[in-house]
Amino acid sequence: MKLKKEMTNIQELKAAANRSSSLANDVCNVLGACEQRLQQLETAVLPLYGDTARLQHIHQNMERTVKSLDHVINYYMVSRELADLIQAGPHTSTTESLNVYLEALDKLAEAQNYFNKHNPQSVELENINQLYNAGVLKLESAFEELLSRNTRPLSPTTLMDMIALEEDSSVDSVSVSGSGSTSGAALETMRAAAAWLSAAGRPPAGPLLAIRAPAAKSSLVAFKDYLRSRSMAASPLMKSKNLLHRSDSTKKTSKLQKVLEKRANKLMLKASQTLEQSTGLAIGPRRSLNEAYGEESSEALDEQEAELAGTLAAAVCRLARHEQRAALGLVPLPRLPALLAATLRDCFAALAADVEVTPYLIARVMF
């Protein structure tokens, strides 16, 4: 019974082994077929991958080409798009409106650089050059007009107040009425226009000199006339008449005169020292007014002439500071000393002629 049972089990195991072998053969056949099909699919797909990569590269090139074309087309269209804005000229009422005009000029300058580099024979370059030059000229004219509107000679009373306040406080921190200072909005607009012109290689030194120099000279001439009239009013012949017709303003002026009389001998020295420190103009070794006159002649100035000369020198010093503040931000700093020297040249010459200094001193003061 046990033998029969074991033989039966052996037969069953043989049958199971046969079935397992059959299944293994079937699986091997299926896997072989799958591998063959995968090889066929890979053979068909690999060229497609290469074509897809080439298509992607072509697409990227097309996108870059379209962007480049848009960029280049803008250069060809910029003159047509900005012609009306440039021909209308800049609006200097606010800095924002001026910046719109400056941005248009920057676009024209960028187009100029592109055509000069890639297509200097293009007709469009000539149109852009004409429009750009016209825009720069209009900007310079607008700057000159704005500068003229905001440039006024200082009144004699304003200069006298500046001189009187110089001893105890700075004019920068003291409000002086009628000083003719430029408004904040106008100053910002002028500085924006001047900064663009300086960056473009056309700093507005010429307009500044042509407009500010006559204003400074007019301020000094009016101040000299004011001093002369006050000196005549203080003479012995006019003293009795002035006593009968003295007003509050005359009393205030007499107080300033007393203060100035005490400082008359040192005003020339202090004026020259302050002028050099505030403007950067090299005036050279400073000497007192009495020493300068001592070299020219043995006769000393009387008290009234010394006061007039010293007050005039102090006025030139205050004018120099005023012109320095007005020119800050309008020209590059390296050009500022030369501009101030040229602007105040007539004032220095008038001062030299008034106090009758030697030609050597004139040259040192002016240069």
UniProtKB/TrEMBL annotation:
Q: Which Gene3D superfamilies match?
A: Exocyst complex component Exo70 (1.20.1280.170)
Q: What is this protein called?
A: Exocyst complex component 7
Q: Looking at the record's lineage, which domain of life comes first?
A: Eukaryota
Name the SUPFAM superfamilies for this protein: Cullin repeat-like (SSF74788)
Q: Which InterPro entries match?
A: Cullin_repeat-like_dom_sf (IPR016159)
Recorded hits in Pfam families, A to Z, give:
Exo70_N
